[in-house]
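re: that chain from earlier
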Amino acid sequence: MTEAATDGRLTDAQLTELATLLPGADSVELKVTVPAIGARAAAASIGMDPLGAQVRQVFFFDTPALALNEAGVVVRARRIRGRPHDCVVKLRPVVPDDVPPEFRASPDLGVEIDAMPGGFVCSASMKRTLKGDKIADVAAGDRPIRKLFSKQQRAFFSAFGPRGFDLDDLSVLGPIFVLKLKDAPAGFSRKLVGEMWLYPDGSRIVELSTKCAPDEALDVAHEARSFFERHGLDLNDQQQTKTKTALEYFASELAATAPNETST
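^ sequence. v structure.
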């Protein structure tokens, strides 16, 4: 993520960088995180009904020291109630033109810019829809991690993951329970997605987002900012990252439960 401006707006240098990335992206997702203490009031103000939320269970795969995260690689699987499950190997940050053609041409690869108040990051994600409940088998230790991922995803991981690690070397980090709600609130021209990530220690991260095409990103960003500000969201609040928070939580949990090594 690029360094945030103090007022939540992009600096001139950031806007210049963003302009070079947009033509190579497939989509832009505009995001804002809401302090948990104000999430209920924000949802009521916007008019999003939590009873329409979809339940998800998210697992990450990394080393106890988070070697993948340090290398800019995210490996994730999601169980989704009422829908096919999925998994992804994600690389960030990337420059779209630097993604090798053999991967860029794949219909399973998407390049997206995630923008939050004051910053943005461009990522490349190789996705796969899963049949059955293979994720539960992996989480239980009954199936190797690599079996979740397609041949192309494994090649993507081999090309960009940290050297010396295979998918089956990774630890299962999770799950995180997520409530996802999609709605079209009054006064906003697009669909708005709300996600509440529920961490095992009782903490929460609430995120509101909307997607658009790269050529309309600046106009949609302006509309979204005005909409959020009308509903009392402070876009100058420090933004939280769902994935980083989850990885750090479960890595610390692994460290706490690992057997102590004693010298003899």
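The CA atoms of residues 21 and 155 lie 24 Å apart.
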